[in-house]
Specification:
By secondary structure, the protein is α+β, with helices and mostly antiparallel strands. Helix content is 23%, strand content 25%. The strands form 2 sheets. The protein has a 3-stranded antiparallel beta sheet with strand order 1-6-5, with no helix packed on it. The mean pLDDT is 89.
């Protein structure tokens, strides 16, 4: 499979036992973009509650932040390109 010019990293998705905490920076971004209410409940457009529950139990080893992150945080990142067959395609651009 040839690599897309937009994609820099192909990161496999891992299953975790317990939901990983979303960083405060990511929470602020989610709230400002309307994807999280004031109580901290996620409201992602086009994602069913069942799928969101599954996404919370997945993680990735983020090549940009150089740490393990929950898939939800990866999904809302500006570097997220797509997810196909258990692999996240990441643009890999540096973030502040």
């Amino acid at each position: 499979m040839s690599e897309s010019p937009v994609t820099k990293y192909e990161v496999p998705i891992k299953q975790v036992e317990k939901t990983l905490k979303i960083s405060d920076r990511a929470k602020a971004e989610l709230k400002s973009s309307g994807m999280m209410d004031d109580k901290g409940k996620l409201k992602l457009k086009g994602v069913s509650p069942k799928m969101l529950k599954r996404m919370k139990l997945e993680s990735i080893d983020c090549p940009v932040f150089k740490q393990e992150l929950g898939f939800v945080q990866c999904y809302v990142c500006s570097n997220f390109h797509s997810r196909i067959s258990g692999v996240v395609y990441c643009k890999g651009d540096p973030l502040e």
